[in-house]
Model the fold of this input.
Amino acid sequence: MTTAEPTRMGFFTDTSVCIGCKACEVACKEWNDVPTDGLDFLATSYDNTGALGADTWRHVAFLERPPVPAAGEGEAAQDSGIRWLMSSDVCKHCTHAACLDVCPTGALFRTEFETVVVQQDICNGCGYCVPACPFGVIDQRKGDGRVWKCTLCYDRLRSDMVPACAQACPTASIQFGPLDELRARAAGRLELVKEAGVPGAHLYGADETDGVGGFGAFFLLLDRPEVYGLPPDPVVTTRDLPAMWRSAGAAALAVVGAVAAAFLGGGRRR
Amino acid sequence: MAECHPVGFQWVMEAKARGARVIHVDPRFTRTSALADTFVAIRAGSDIAFLGAIVNHILTNGREFREYVEAYTNAATIIDERFHDTEDLDGLFSGWDAGKHAYDPQSWQYAGMATGPAAAHQEDSPQGEAHGYGARLKAGNPPETDPTLEHPRCVYQILKRHFARYTPELVEEVCGVPRERFVEVAEALCDNSGRERTAAICYAVGWTQHSTGVQYIRTAAIIQLLLGNVGRPGGGILALRGHASIQGSTDIPTLYNILPGYLPMPHADAHPTLADYLAAVCAPAGFWGHADAFVVSLLKAWFGDAATTENDFCYDHLPFITGDHSTYRTMLDMADGKVQGFFVMGENPAVGSANGRLQRFAMAELDWLVVRDLVEIETATFWKDGPEIDSGELRTAGIGTEVFFLPAAAHTEKDGTFTNTQRMLQWHHKAVEPEGDRRSDLWFSFHLGRIIREKLAAAGEARDRAVLDLAWDYPLLGHHHEPSADAVLREINGVDGDGRTLSGFMDLKADGSTACGCWIYSGCYADGVNQTARRKPGREQSWVAPEWGWAWPANRRLLYNRASADPAGNPWSERKKYVWWDAGARRWTGHDVPDFVADMAPDYVPPDGATAEHALRGDSPFIMQTDGRGWLFVPSGLVDGPLPAHYEPHESPVTNPLYGQGTNPARLTQPHRLNPDNGPGGRYPFVMTTYRLTEHHTAGGMSRFLSHLAELQPEMFCEVSPELAAERGLENGGWATIHSSRATIEARVLVTGRVAALTVQGRTLHQVGLPYHWGWKGLSTGDAANDLFGLALDPNVHIQEDKAATCDIRPGRRPRP
Amino acid sequence: MTSVDDPRPGPGVPPPATTQDGNAPSNRWAGGGGGRKGRGDGPTASYYGRPVLKAPVWKHYIPLYFFTGGLAGASSTLALAAQMAGNDRLARSARLASLAGTAASGPLLIADLGRPGRFANMLRVAKPTSPMSMGTWLLTAFAPSAIAAGASDLTGLLPRLGRLCGAAAGVLGPGMTTYTAVLVSDTAIPAWHDAHRQLPFVFAGSSAAAAGGVAMACTPAASARPARRLALVGACLELGASRMMEQRLGQAGEPYRSGEAARLVKAAKMSTTAGAVLALAAGRRRLAAVPAGVLLAAGSLLTRLAVFRAGFESAADPGATVGPQRRRRRWSDGLPGRPEDTSS
Done:
């Protein structure tokens, strides 16, 4: 157990060094006893997992993309006519987490590491968090009724261990640690990647001013987020909640008004 | 490497992060290619043309590391005047005897140095791994050399002439690699070699599983020797082996033709006595000069007190070979009813061996079959649910084989070592007791032997002495009576007459006073400490990290590292210093255990009559060779040529533009009713190649039965280019059948730009990619790619050619009977 | 396309094998990328056409609850007003309608849970950021009130308590009609979220139309006039707010314009309009009031089903999520791939 004040912990997933080995997927399933998500040949490159869900908490995406001509060079260094981008997706553990905001039972809570975790003994499967997540991460498990997602290995963190996926990743594509350290490291890594001639490289989720207040698990991507299946500009739905209540209040008043108006000029009958 | 060695690949990524350039050459764009700086698509089966062109590029442009080549290779050695090259004989070397289907290597020898009888072989059993002996060096040099490298018959000039037609244009024509791309790779390799820089070549079975597989490696060796990359940090040729401990299974071999430590298996005709054998095996120069000590110590380890000087240390008890007993030869004999019984332990030939139908038909002819594995693999149940049962070609009731399936313990349930691709032994500790009937291979082998010995003991037959004389007495632990793996490792390390562990193979004696199970492993238990169990973290030691595990030989992490210093004993450069001569202390020193006689001065010249390592010069780093040099030209030891030549695979849709002899004349084609050829003509117009995926392991026994792995790649699939898909009407996600003369299999289709349509000899050439992991059992099932391949074997090591053959592909599923 | 119990596509269905630009499957580039030929409008790239969001796991119990809860809420308010106006016949009809609606609501919500036995966990917290939490407490206060009011009216027992409960239900009623709109809007699904300004009015109008229609059908014509008026006002609000919602939604409103949700929208509008016209023209006669009420109630239910269905279609379309977000982000962040870039 940590004796010092826990700091915010998270993931930096550097997709520029991902080799698509899926050790993260396997390690996560092994540690967390996550069931199989189906033996389906999807014919989508080497991705037969498809997406994150109740039974997939790390998902490696594979994109076969055309080469990006390097700035100033006549011919791309990798003249194979292809780039194969690989990226291990995970729950973002948002600073402003919609799933947590909408959970009516308090099953979803924020841990001392500022990660977002579902308490499985409380969740009653109302499913509200499922459409609330702007990334489509959390989902209900078939045959179980409750919702499941990445816990950032909360049990391992409480024993001063590293999450299973980060432990297993052979190239340190998945890095775990205090979030501010990861962000500093990522900024440096991004500069190196861009200098090496990847103009599309950028950090996804490292900006605290974005629509979810920055991610607890952020990424270095080599292309636009949407080609990886990620929303380009996610916003926590709760941001608009005050406006929603105001509209609802006005509409409720309209009902009162309509009922009152229905009785104007009599309506009194016996 | 990223596909098959993802954990090891982290070091490539580390190197890349430090500025290394990674070049990947492969028929497909794989996960390795995705992280490489340069990818080169190549036609499967044409690598010798590519590599040979690099040799030509080096020699034509004078890019070799001249001082290294002059001092450390046999470039200056003059070859026998009877030698003729493939350039002279349109694809043959001198000495080809078509009747015997073999080369006589006499004309390949060094001028003035005759080879000994060890290289001679019986009619039907060419022997690989032989060493040319009866040679006599003069002052550590072969009798005829030209240090200026000008003599027309010196190795250097022979090399130049041999590869003269391996041009960038040839590469484009034969390999499908654009000439500019080839030159870019050749230049990158040359630019990054020399005093200040080194380059490494890593390969795996994409190079070895060809009918010219050994010559692929030879060509790479020539390149690395010319560039001065052997025995130097960051250089070398790394063979990436395919199992956790397959290096160990050749070191302490499960191969028929070698004894532990790469000693050859004695041949019944050539080596009837121990003296004959030692005469053939002991080299006059180099460390093989001590082979007698290695052999006698091995016999003492195996036969203990029963092995005495009087009975030649029980030499007669060894299982002499009489010919080719390799796995495919044995399966062919098995199919002809000549083999009674078969142990299959941790292998799945019904899926994992080439020509799967042959394997299954063969096993149907056995009297008995014992299968040991973690799960009930296809080999264990072929007789009731194999494809031949489905098709009706075999009936269960008609198969007389009695099959036993015994569950095996996993590596977590037993002690032992893995020897990895780096020659490093790492001990693994038992974590849990195996449950139920699961037992380790050590337990099985030991107790099987024990029970057999008990049954034989009473009969008193002379022929049973081979089994009864074995020293079979390990301590037994726990309620399973598990033999102590620790005791086995001690025995492998070697002990003296008092039972003390030896510190290395130089402690071995030929007089029977030492016992050692494997001379190259001697030292792994030095000082009574299990060196293989050491786990000092890397950050607490030097960058060589010698205190993690133990590497053979003698914990040297880099072989032939004397070559990292110049002939005077000084490092070639400060940047690449590794080991060097300490003139003050009169010893070799450095970052690693020097791979040299520790106190042999760089200027040492062997006197007449010197033997073994002392017959080599102080500036000859290649201490296992009889002349201490790296062999650009191999005078003896290989059965298909002293130099590599581009030959087409046994099955190829293109003809060889270089030679009339288009294929390797010495390859083993294994004609048999169950091994038909695709034959000439355009019926099978596409190249097919097999490979692995990260998610599965070999024949699938360790992955197809586990949901976490099976779901990652759940079905057998083939990879085809968009152009081939369009030509044949294949749809991404649909089905295809792939045909050869051996079998028809079905697979899902993955259409991908990562498989390129190449232009070879002016025509478009398509390749079909086939992962070979699937069989009909487990959570993830599918047809076996190996069913498509026939047997065309490399003649040196009898490995199958399943990296390049021909096929046809059509849309749709295979018909059901 | 879907079963009643699981409106989402089955798990084993892989996404279409077409690539990003809709070409034949044997196109070289597999994976992301977009370009003008992509699915949806503008540069809407995706990962193999896969949805970005997860479809809701809610079953059809939920839109049914929207209907029954809205009906109950508006009916309670109608009942309270009727009682205050001395219109006992109307008050009774409305109270019974509220009772029926409330009685159905609880079981519908509980049945939809993944772990129905744990429904009481809803009362562990009261969370303002969760419309479902707020709604649960609202329902917890409303339901016993509505049931007590209705039961008291039916049995004649405890009339004063019944009237008190009726007053409480009547005050909470309007909340019951609109909070469900906030619930669906407070998700990431564009067809729901982006409609958050108008949807409460749609639901409010829909509830009023249903309450008025049901009361109209169940009350003697002499006492039913306020119900008829409420029904007409509600129908106008429902239709008007729906139209405004569909017009104000850009790409996010696509499901309301084409597809199965659009068909439900059309059916809802036809039913509501028919019911309103019938009520207006001949609602004074009971013979017309009953079918008019049924049509209005059916229209209200169909509206909820349409909105529900639209959410699923919106979630399934990656372009609906990506398009507006990408336009928001513009190209200033220097990422490759501009609207005119068709090579990616």
Observations:
- The radius of gyration of chain C is 23 Å.
- Chain C touches chain A through 112 residues (CB under 8 Å).
- Residues 61-319 of chain C form a domain with the Formate dehydrogenase/DMSO reductase fold fold (CATH 1.20.1630.10).
- Residues 286-316 of chain C form the longest helix (31 residues).
